[in-house]
Amino acid sequence: MIELRPFGRLGGGNHGWLESKFHFSFANYHDDERMHWGRLRVWNDDEIAAGSGFPTHPHANMEIITYVTQGAITHKDSLGNTGRTEAGDVQVMSAGTGIQHSEYNLEKETTKLFQIWILPDRRGGTPSWGARPFPKDARAGQFVTLASGLANDTDALPIRSDARVAGATLKAGETTEYKLGAGRYAYLVAARGSIEVNGVHASARDGMAIADEDVLRVTAIDDAEIVLVDAG
Question: Within 13 A of 66's CA, how many CA atoms are on the CB side?
Answer without folding.
Answer: 29
